[in-house]
Design goal:
Helix content is 51%, strand content 17%. It is of the alpha/beta class. α1 packs across α9 and α7 runs antiparallel to α8.
């Protein structure tokens, strides 16, 4: 199995990914890289700046020096910036939301993309549109941004966060054939809701299952 480097812009995703890796691909050798300041800077700048892109490239080089075969980002906000480093390395670069996007495109004609952070929503929408164009299929993509939920999350008010995300989901149920949750932190809301009337896709589990296939190829 290929050696994997997983990059996190928040320690909040670390425990979740470690558990999923332990459940789905326990035999994998995974090196976790974490820089919590990066997502805050991305949000403040409204996207990935040249300086942030240079730091991402440095992490790719670290993975290369550690003899990793795959470098995957657990953060959708920097997914495109990671992909853009492919020219400089033989390490295979990947993003955790790749499998989720492919599944959404194959599942329904109307895709709702929910996010609580604009710097995650925009690159996710760009990625979905790129994959739709590559597929040659006709898909309607509807963005739903719930920034108040993220402010509540930062304040530690999980009840308000979950309520806002739940309300966003309820609205999307009436419009879309399939729903994507752009951030792993939103998936917890599904645990306290009835079975959704349309598929609701999250990136962590589908991403790790896809990563396992990639690591075994």
């Amino acid at each position: 199995m290929k050696k994997i480097a997983m990059f996190h812009t928040s320690s909040a995703t670390l425990a979740m990914m470690q558990q999923l890796i332990g459940d789905i691909m326990p035999e994998a050798e995974v090196m976790h890289l974490i820089e919590e300041s990066m997502i805050k800077q991305v949000m403040k700048a409204g996207g990935v700046t040249p300086d942030i892109a240079a730091r991402i490239a440095d992490y790719v080089r670290i993975a290369e020096k550690a003899d990793c075969d795959i470098f995957i980002t657990a953060c959708s906000s920097i997914g495109t910036a990671v992909e853009q480093c492919q020219f400089m390395t033989s390490v295979q670069l990947a993003r955790i939301d790749c499998a989720m996007v492919d599944e959404a495109i194959n599942t329904g004609e109307h895709i709702a993309v929910l996010a609580t952070v604009s710097t995650t929503l925009k690159p996710t929408l760009d990625f979905v549109q790129r994959k739709v164009d590559e597929s040659g299929k006709q898909r309607l993509i509807t963005p739903v941004l719930m920034e108040d939920a993220f402010h509540a999350l930062l304040a530690g008010d999980m009840e308000t966060h979950d309520r806002i995300v739940s309300e966003g989901l309820q609205q999307a149920f009436g419009r879309a054939d399939v729903i994507m949750l752009a951030q792993a932190s939103m998936a917890r809301v599904l645990q306290n809701m009835p079975e959704p009337p349309v598929p609701v896709l999250t990136s962590p589990e589908s991403g790790i299952r896809w990563l396992k296939a990639l690591a075994n190829s």
